[in-house]
UniProtKB/TrEMBL annotation:
Top-level taxon of origin: Eukaryota
Protein name, per record: UPK3B protein
Entry's transmembrane regions: 165-189
GO CC terms: membrane
Organism phylogeny: Eukaryota, Metazoa, Chordata, Craniata, Vertebrata
Keyword Endoplasmic reticulum in record: no
Annotated keywords: Membrane, Transmembrane, Transmembrane helix
InterPro entries: Uroplakin-3
Gene encoding the protein: Upk3b_1
Length: 239
């Protein structure tokens, strides 16, 4: 069949991860080749091994997921052909490698387990009937998964910036310091002025003018008793 599987071109959350990728559903592709008992399989193979893949003669010979490291291919996502007829039901995408439970349990039925390496991979859809393969699509373009970075490869030091960027950053930092100093100085002066005015307001008082009472000049004191005054030229004598 001329249909080529592909990753959806639209933005999609988790479209390609380190262990999974999404595919468009092959809707309306097998309508003229199916009957009620047919199933559609997805063949997943390493890109360099897709040319040597041979379709299994029966469903009993379908290569399982656990043989991917040795056979470099497997088949998964067994689906009744009626699920891909027109109009197609939702969801509109298939997710390859999305089932982590079947890998841990080691089941023998078709497993859609996580992909073990970035690949690249190529996929195709295969229509299987009771007597073997009936139709198939073309192989997809190579699909490369994301690579997880090892912690040892992460540089803990920030990337060195260009000299121009460093100069601009230094100037901006200096300007910010000057502005901060000016603002703090203005605020300090305002606060100090407010405190001074508050102190003056509480310590000053109004001087009232007043006049003292009139105090007459001191009168001469009388001589002490027993002392009289002699005529001029004579001293004091005792009575």
């Amino acid at each position: 069949l001329p249909y080529v599987p592909r990753v959806p071109p639209v933005a999609l959350l988790g479209k390609i991860t380190a262990t999974t990728f999404a595919l468009e559903r092959p809707c309306c592709v097998f309508d003229w080749h199916t009957n009620a008992s047919d199933t559609v399989w997805l063949v997943v193979a390493f890109a360099n091994a897709s040319a040597t893949f041979r379709n299994p003669p029966s469903q009993a010979d379908v290569p399982p997921y656990k043989q991917l490291p040795t056979t470099h291919s497997y088949m998964t996502l067994e689906t009744v052909a009626a699920a891909y007829t027109c109009p197609a039901p939702s969801p509109a995408v298939l997710r390859v490698g999305d089932d982590t439970a079947c890998k841990d349990q080691g089941r023998q039925d078709p497993c859609n387990g996580p992909l073990p390496s970035p690949g690249p991979y190529r996929v195709k859809f295969l229509l299987m009937g009771c007597h073997g393969p009936k139709a198939e699509t073309r192989w997809s373009d190579p699909i490369l998964l994301r690579r997880a970075l090892s912690p040892s490869t992460i540089d803990p030091m920030p990337t060195r910036r260009g000299s121009d960027v460093v100069v601009i950053a230094s100037l901006l930092a200096s300007l910010g310091t000057v502005l901060a100093t000016a603002v703090l100085g203005a605020l300090g002066a305002k606060v100090w002025s407010s405190l001074c005015q508050r102190d003056l307001g509480t310590s000053t008082f109004t001087h009232r003018s007043y006049r003292t009472h009139h105090i007459p000049p001191a009168l001469p004191q009388p001589p002490p008793p027993g002392c009289g005054c002699s005529p001029p030229g004579l001293g004091c004598f005792t009575l």
